[in-house]
Amino acid sequence: MRKLLVLALVGLAAQLIDGSLGMAYGLTSSTLLLVAGVAPAAASASVHLAEIGTTLAAGVAHWRFGNVDWRVVTRIALPGAIGAFAGATLLSSISTKAAAPWMAGILFTLGAYLLVRFARPLRTDRVGSRLRGRFLGPLGLVAGFVDATGGGGWGPVATPALLVSGRMEPRKVIGSVDTAEFVVAGAASVGFLIGLGSEGFLLPTVAALLIGGLIAAPLAAWLVRIVPAQLLGAAVGGAIVLTNARTLIRAAELDGPVRPVLYTLLAAGWLAALVLAVRALRRTRHSRAEAAQATNASPAETVPTEFPADASALAVGLATTGTPTRR
After folding, report:
1. What pTM, to 2 d.p., does this model score?
2. 49, 198, 227, 317: least surrounded by Cβ within 10 Å?
3. Which has the closest alpha carbon to 26: 86, 107, 94, 116?
4. DSSP labels for 193-242?
5. Cα Rg of the chain, angstroms
6. pLDDT averaged per 10 residues in sequence order, the chain, 327 residues
7. What single DSSP character describes residue 325?
8. What whole-number distance in Å separates Cα of residue 144 and Cα of residue 122?
9. Left if phi > 0, otherwise alpha if psi is -120 to 50, otherwise beta: which for 197?
């Protein structure tokens, strides 16, 4: 019972992160299951089965808050499902001993990518431009494959790629990626069911993760509007890197003074990324404040105060066109 309660809390925390950042439910849950000694294929299978429920709840919540772009959802969901099914089939055929470092390596790489990505300002200068299908289709395919083979990765691949494009509001990127993940999780679960059978799913674990995720989903859809993605992404990325580094170091049989040196370097990199993320967040907020101040400048400040309102308009019209301008 204590273990199931801990897993429910893990699911709750993972969904809070995922719903407000657009990624990391699978990364967080799978990482902790691997640390607990669960086989890689069983961990990924169980997480994806739980995600069917959590992503459905998250999608509905994001839709109600207006965070979903359905065009993007339809363009990435089907390729993502194909990639996830293929990835689940591949992972099911690999032995546990061989799969553990493979899966940890994928999670480590994705965590490092989060650190690098969120240490820089998020681009939003082209919001409103259309995203092409030839970009969304391959993105969904790759993200779905990585997601199933790594136990997580749909969000860490899809969300930053859409954020980097600068063509969507961050909240709509997160809402659309979370909504499309329902289809991806379902396809991955079917692939694991075919490859592992029903015994490949740890049903008590699935239930605990699902309960925690369902509780957190509505709150996470609201938090996406107020939580700084910059800081959350860097914090989660560092935690994932350090956790999966443990598995990789063991697989490489690195002993002696090498281990503490590696952990120290990774921790220093995490701290540096957090500092850069804070600076990037401050620069972004400063730029937005300046833009808002310029936009909200009072028209009266640019008009000579000795003219009454109608006379001001007439003077401006004469100065610019040579003819009176009436307001």
Report:
1. 0.65
2. 198
3. 107
4. HHHH-GGGS-HHHHHHHHHHHHHHHHHHHHHTTTS-HHHHHHHHHHHHHH
5. 24
6. 75 72 72 76 85 85 86 92 92 72 78 80 60 84 86 77 73 85 92 86 84 78 68 76 80 81 90 89 80 66 40 36 41
7. -
8. 23
9. left
